[in-house]
C-alpha cells in the first residue's frame, strides 16, 4: 500500500498571534481532497498550540516541537505527553537536530521521548541527521544508523511503527539554503529503509514514512516529491510563509 504523504511545518521559535491567524486561515483554504489524502501537520511554539488547534480545520494536525518523557513532576519549563493530549495535540517533533545540538539531547533521551510519546498516544516525528563534518568524514550512515537504532529500540511493536514518522534532516541543509539533491536524499532514504528491513522487519521498512527536511521550499519541493522513497517533508523557514507552505503541502507526486 502506498505510504500517505506527510508535510510538517516546524515553526521553531518563530511566529506570533498574527501568524497563527494568517497560517491557519491559509491552510484551512487548502483543497478538501488534498487534506483528506495527506497528513499535514504544523508545529507552532508551545504558547500557540491551543490557538492553532482551535483555528485549524480538524483534518490538519498540530504538533508540539518537543516533550518531556516523564508524566509530571519537578521539571521546570517542560511539557508532558499528558498535557499535549489534554490540549488535543496528537503529534510531536522529537529529537530535532537543534534539540540535540543546542540542548544536549542524547540518542538515549530522544529514544526515551519517542517511547513516552508512543506510550501516551502521541504520534512521533522522530528526527535524525548528520552534520557536515560527519558527512565529509564519510560517517553519514554510521551516524544515521546509530540514531535510528536508538529510536527503533523505543518502538515496542510492529504496530507502534504506524505512529512514527522518521524525518531525515541533514544538519548541513537546515536553515542554510543548501538543500540535499533529490539523489542525496533518495540515497539516504533507501539506506534507512534497508536498515529497517534488516533490523526491524520488512513490513516496517515498507510502511514507515521517511520524510526529508532541510531547506525545502516552494521551488525545490516538486523535484523532491517525485522521489518514491521521499514520503514527505519537514519544513522550517518556508512553513512560516503561507503561500510557499501551501505550495509545498500540494507538491505533486510523480
Ligand atoms: O529544521 C527544519 C525543519 O524541522 C528545516 O528547516 P529549514 O526548512 O528552515 O531548513
Automatic annotation (TrEMBL):
The keyword Lipid metabolism does not apply. One of its GO terms (biological process) is glyceraldehyde-3-phosphate biosynthetic process. Keywords: Gluconeogenesis, Glycolysis, Isomerase. The keyword DNA damage does not apply. It catalyses: D-glyceraldehyde 3-phosphate = dihydroxyacetone phosphate. GO terms for cellular component: cytosol. GO terms for molecular function: triose-phosphate isomerase activity. Its EC number is 5.3.1.1. Belongs to the triosephosphate isomerase family. Homodimer. This is Triosephosphate isomerase.
Amino acid at each position: 500500500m502506498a505510504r500517505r504523504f506527510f508535510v510538517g511545518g516546524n515553526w521553531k521559535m518563530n511566529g506570533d498571534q498574527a501568524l497563527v491567524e494568517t497560517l491557519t486561515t491559509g491552510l484551512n483554504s487548502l483543497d478538501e481532497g488534498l487534506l483528506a489524502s495527506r497528513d499535514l501537520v504544523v508545529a507552532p511554539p508551545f504558547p500557540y498550540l491551543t490557538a492553532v488547534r482551535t483555528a485549524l480545520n480538524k483534518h490538519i494536525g498540530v504538533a508540539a516541537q518537543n516533550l518531556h518523557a516523564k508524566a509530571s513532576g519537578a521539571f521546570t519549563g517542560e511539557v508532558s505527553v499528558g498535557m499535549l493530549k489534554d490540549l488535543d495535540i496528537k503529534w510531536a517533533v522529537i529529537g530535532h537536530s537543534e534539540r540535540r545540538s543546542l540542548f544536549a539531547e542524547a540518542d538515549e533521551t530522544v529514544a526515551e521521548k519517542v517511547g513516552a510519546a508512543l506510550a501516551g498516544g502521541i504520534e512521533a516525528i522522530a528526527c535524525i541527521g548528520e552534520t557536515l563534518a560527519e558527512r565529509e568524514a564519510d560517517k553519514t550512515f554510521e551516524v544515521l544508523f546509530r540514531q535510528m537504532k536508538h529510536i527503533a529500540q523505543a518502538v515496542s511493536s510492529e504496530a507502534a511503527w504506524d505512529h512514527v514518522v522518521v524525518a531525515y534532516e541533514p544538519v548541513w541543509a537546515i536553515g542554510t539554503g543548501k538543500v540535499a539533491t533529490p539523489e542525496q536524499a533518495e540515497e539516504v532514504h533507501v539506506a534507512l529503509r534497508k536498515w529497517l528491513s534488516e533490523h526491524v522487519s520488512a513490513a516496517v521498512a515498507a510502511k514507515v514514512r521517511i520524510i526529508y527536511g532541510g531547506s525545502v521550499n516552494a521551488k525545490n519541493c516538486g523535484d523532491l516529491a517525485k522521489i518514491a522513497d521521499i514520503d514527505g517533508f519537514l519544513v522550517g523557514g518556508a512553513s512560516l510563509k503561507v503561500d510557499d507552505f501551501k505550495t509545498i503541502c500540494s507538491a505533486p507526486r510523480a
